[in-house]
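Bumping with the actual sequence this time:
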Amino acid sequence: DGIRDYKVTGVQTCALPISRQGLAARQRLWEQNVLSEGTSRRWLPMEIVHATSKRGAELLKQPDGSLLVGGVNPPKDSLTVVCRTSLRRMTAIRLEAMPDASLPGGGPGRSTGGNFVLSEFQARLGADPADKKAVKIPFAAAFADFAQEGFPASLAIDGKSDGGWAVGGSGEKQPRKRTVVFRAQSPAPLPADGAVTVVLDASYGQQHTLGRFRLTATDADPDEIQRILPDEIRPILAVRERDRSPAQKKVLADHYASIDAELQLRRTAAERRSEEHTSELQSPCNLVCRLLLE
């Protein structure tokens, strides 16, 4: 048991009690439940029909279903991706921001340090990006496996462009895949062809655009969404705990930490404290955040 400091602004922290033993115990119980109950729910691919950049960047389909962004690297951009899915209804969309050797710093973004800021994430029904009457899918929540201080996933669905979800400042030497899930306010009935248009805006800073990403969707009920196992987690759970490698143990622990209810409450509390202090510490925070983004 111990105390961990959660940064809520660039210059101030708040102490929130975190029990490491309690977290490990909850993870073991979660593993037992997953193995005993099993789950048929999965994230299903969103097949890319076509994808465009408002500022002229190139979007190239990759064999794993992701899109790699190349060519011109504009200061700001908006990516529109028309997809199709076999689902009849959709309750959430998952975005995986993926590293790539062709990106600055290995990605997953296109800034000089490999970061990005997803200012706004939007989705609407249909395959015509120009259809102003297309039904928008409102999102009720966004949760990520990691978020940079001051840039939580919730900022990507707040209707504003002065912030967003970012993943810098983790302290890790190698870039890694980061995941965010956007949960719909209610199940969205899809058209007969399963077409969905997704728009990803990058309006913060300079060249903080996504470099490589993949979209998947689910029709799982809201209370099941966070229990859906990522593809890389399933094989690790199949290995007995004592036989897992240190790398496997870390991947599993990181995944559980991203869905643990108690930790989520603490993250939410930290974010609220950050919002409360924004007005009085705006200049120092903005300076630190900009430094972290690079």
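The tokens above came from a reply further down the thread. The first strand starts at residue 2 and ends at 7.
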